[in-house]
Amino acid sequence: MSNYFPAEKFKSIPTPFYFYDMGLLEQTLQKVKSESDKYNFVVHYAIKANANDRILERIREYGMGVDCVSGFEVKKALDMGFPAQGIVFAGVGKADWEIEMGIDNNIACFNVESTAELDVINEIATRKNQKVKVAMRINPNVKANTHKYITTGLDENKFGIHQMDVEKTVDAITKMDFINLEGIHFHIGSQIMDLSSFSALCERVNEIQDWFEEKGIALKTINVGGGLGIDYNKPAENPIPDFENYFRIFSEGIKLRPGQEIHFELGRSVVGQCGNLISKVLYVKEGVKTNFAIIDGGMTDLIRPALYQAYHKIENITSNGSEEKYDVVGPICESSDSFGKDIELPKTSRGDLMAIRSAGAYGEVMVSRYNLREEPKAYYSDQL
Ligand code: LLP
After folding, report:
1. Cα–Cα distance for residue pair 109/130, rounded to 1 Å
2. CB atoms within 10 A of CB 185
3. Is the ipTM of this complex over 0.95?
């Protein structure tokens, strides 16, 4: 299923385009559901990973909540029919209109990242005479062992309330008439393959919970964020991430108090493997050191390799010649517009189709129109 590329049908579609394997998405969602249901965990889908309508429709059918990071994401989730009561809203820089919108729509919870933000939420809530539920996003200073640009839970990162400031923030909240402290929130980073990072997070959560208990504060929700990684090297062999062990770590690791719920915010692990960028080879150019396969998809269509030096597996899905090495590059006027160096591919020529794998998360949502390019369209396995 995860290798379903109807190359013949692709030939009549203008390239580059996103191609989603809807069967794989379905299987992934089933796995998330069955593994999280074992422990009554609550899963919010991190809509920043992919906000494509058809993908969102499928996710909604599985009864997930949504994790948003902008007012426009909140609006999108509501427009797509997700219940407001499943929406959580994080972000270090929520604008006033975004806070107002969240309050007006009665979303489940604001994950607040500073006392300055709390002051503004309280001011708006007071004006509206409406109580607002918040969770404190605490920066746990836990190493995620991932790329530095997608690490979020260290002291030097801008996210969350520093542990040193937790007491001060709690004291401030108790003086705010319109703020209800629902819980605590964490997110240590993304594309985490070493599950021991999550065990370390559990330990930190337990320490912090003990502190709240000593203070006599009961917390309803413990939100541990997202971050579970996917196998970019072997998408066909490992299309579905290890949700079983991931959820088990939290069920064994976190000391839950009676009536408490554990919440998750999963993005990449849900949608990453079902998406591919399909692109056509325009030219093969012999370079001094290497051959370039120049494709019509570029960093404007999938920015991860250029931005994070991220690896995405590239497959030539129309040739079965003998293997040769190529630098696979796009047409954009930037040297960083490259999808990979010295990639072994079957002999490649003009007109061949390439699949850039594992592009379902942070692919289509990060498209830009630099060089005034058109945004790539999306196609779906159940419609071809
Ligand atoms: N919760 C919060 C508060 C987050 O900041 C994020 C991701 C998530 C949940 C979802 O994390 P996931 O399960 O997808 O790892 N554009 C980058 C990734 C940025 C992640 C930002 N935050 C990339 O392409 O790798």
Report:
1. 13
2. 27
3. yes
187: Cβ below 6 Å to ligand 1?
yes
Q: What does the alpha-carbon distance between residue 82 and residue 76 come to, in Å, rounded to a whole number?
A: 9
Any ligand 1 atom below 6 A from CB of 50: no
CATH code at 261? 3.20.20.10
The answer on 222 and 278 residing in a single domain is no
Measured by CA distance, the residue closest to atom 1 of ligand 1 is 225
pLDDT in tens, the chain (384 residues): 346 799 999 999 999 999 999 999 999 999 999 999 999 999 999 999 999 999 999 999 999 999 999 999 999 999 999 999 999 999 999 999 999 999 999 999 999 999 999 999 999 999 999 999 999 999 888 877 666 655 665 666 778 898 889 999 999 999 999 999 999 999 999 999 999 999 999 999 999 999 999 999 999 999 999 999 999 999 999 999 999 999 999 999 999 999 999 999 999 999 999 999 999 999 999 988 889 999 999 999 999 999 999 999 999 999 999 999 999 999 999 999 999 999 999 999 999 999 999 999 999 999 999 999 999 999 999 999
Do 129 and 33 lie in a common domain?
Answer: yes
> Is 266 a pocket residue for ligand 1 (Cβ < 6 Å)?
yes
Give me the catalytic one of 68, 109, 274, 333: 333
In ligand 1, the atom with minimum distance to the C-alpha of 185 is 3
Domain match, 366 and 245 both: no
3 part of a folded domain: no
Cα 49 to ligand 1 centroid, rounded to whole Å: 7
When divided into structural domains, the chain yields a total of 2
Predicted model pTM: 0.96
Closest atom of ligand 1 to CA, residue 152 = 5
User: Domain limits at 328?
Assistant: 273-383
Span from the CA of 227 to the centroid of ligand 1 (angstroms): 6
> Backbone phi, then psi, for 87, in 5-degree steps?
-100, 125
Confirm whether 333 is a catalytic residue: yes
User: Is residue 290 domain-shared with residue 226, that is, in the same domain?
Assistant: no
Query: How far are the Cα atoms of 106, 141, 153, 159, 241 from residue 204, in angstroms, in the given order?
Result: 30, 9, 12, 16, 24
Angle 196-214/243-253 helices, nearest 10 degrees?
30
